Amino acid sequence: MSDILHVEDITQAHKIFGIAKPKHPLVSVIQHKDIQLGETFHQFRYTLGMYYIANKNDGQGSIRYGRSSYDFQEGSIIFAKPGQVMSYDGHQPTAPETGWTLLFHPDLIRKSELGKIIEQYSFFAYDITEALHLSDVEKRSLDEVLAKIEKEYQQNIDRHSQKLIIANIQLLLDYCTRYYDRQFYTRTNLNKDILAKFENLLTTYYSNENQLISGVPSVYYCGQQLNISPKYLSDLLKKETGKNAKAHIDDFLIEKAKNRLLSSADSVGEIAYALGYEYSQHFSKIFKAKTGMSPSEYRNSN
Q1: Residue 59: what pLDDT?
Q2: With contact defined as beta carbons under 8 Å apart, do 240 and 188 qualify?
Q3: Domains of the chain and any CATH numbers
Q4: Is 211 within 8 Å of 249 (Cβ atoms)?
């Protein structure tokens, strides 16, 4: 499975899925029961030049991107943004699948307000195993929005069409944001366990003096160690504590810096280096932003 197939537009996606030509060049709602995948499709990795939202309720096979594979559960949704490498692991289904896929090209939203804020929908950068799981009521709400998008581009397109299509895509994304908030809330015990593991990871990292070799731990590194995507880790911590992962790392380091400033005669530069900062100016800037004082001012005030 070494080949990568680059799927750049809606028309090409329809051809690969074995369905009729799209009604709109930049957006499509594909019903899974209509898809006829080629026999060799599962042998390829592929990238999409589009945003991808899929709700799959049954059938065989799984979707993979990054290092993870995900077998859809009933009422679950995954998201991918342009450029992510994906693959289909499985074989031709023996029975029609239910569910849908929404594809929309970046050109559709490029000049719109949604185009300006699309990165705020961080679930497009979640790992595939961090899918959104829907209740029946939530699923019906999304199905209704999808029906409006589909109806809008299937009728005669006029000067209002694109605005209404984009508005409904944003409505769908806002619903997904709400449902992810609900999912974070209902998994609070699991979230607290991840928070404890995250804090222990930082403690162990500095106990082993890994910072002297690898520097300040990044959110990406922490996510890798916890088997969580960086965006999902940050969003989970934000929902649980009000602070994202980067803020937690900074707070952890500031506390260590405070102790070092008051318990040693080390210079600010030496303390910055001991904490893993490449430049002491960067450390001083973060310290002042967090405490309102420079490291030297903090030391002299206590």
Answers
A1: 46
A2: yes
A3: 4-186 (2.60.120), 189-300 (1.10.10.60)
A4: no
